[in-house]
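Exercise: predict the fold of this chain.
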Amino acid sequence: YHLTTATDCSMDRLIPLRSEEGRARLAQAAAVAPGVVSSWRQQIGRRCCGVTSLAICGSSLHLTALTAELEGECDGLTAGGGGPTAMKVTEAAVLHTLEQADGRCDAPSPATVHAAGLTLEEVTCAAEVMPWVVGAARYHCGGDVPIATSASSLAHTLPDLDALRAALQSALAPSLDGAPQTRVILNYDMDTLGQKGFRGHLSPVAAFHLDTDSFLIADTWPSTEPVWASTALIWTAAATRDTTSNAPRGLLVIEVQEQLVCE
């Protein structure tokens, strides 16, 4: 896909985080989701973008442990950055949680993940059974909002670009002391974004740069990389229709709790 340089920064192009311009935007960012960039990784295989995105969000919290929902053994966690007690949530831990959920909250099974990947509604249901998630809401960009299949899942419509920007900024805003933090996962069409030859995808959003009105997408795809994209371009890519769910794409905002202890 098109990689730009600091001299080619038109807002219909993607700015790689690894570029000089990309690093400068992160340093100047008006809002940053703590730990998302340092927890970023590429997915394994073509269908695990949702699982990897959830693992990145969990790892960004520097969890001290998993709860008894992972059988009290803290399997699937490895030491991560952020100090001696920080932990990294792996894709294996996310898949194990989905297996143990056994359909609770309409959570997809690991077999579903490996067979077809996850839609926006399915990754929302998957998030709801993660032990570190205390709330989840999905936002569809334009179009009709499908009826939620999970009783606890909230579905909203973002009618335009301004609403999308506001939702992303709100999700990236710092949390008050003691309140759950929020993380956001974007569901978009990669080809429309400018990553030619690819289709529907899920990746966390890591930061917002005010002067360029752009957000940092922590892209998990194996052959691409984290990039800055303008809000206008993100809207165009997220307002596409998922052919599996027949619903508009959009974003998932999850409320997450940092302090968890194995029992």
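Check your answer against the key: The first strand starts at residue 15 and ends at 16.
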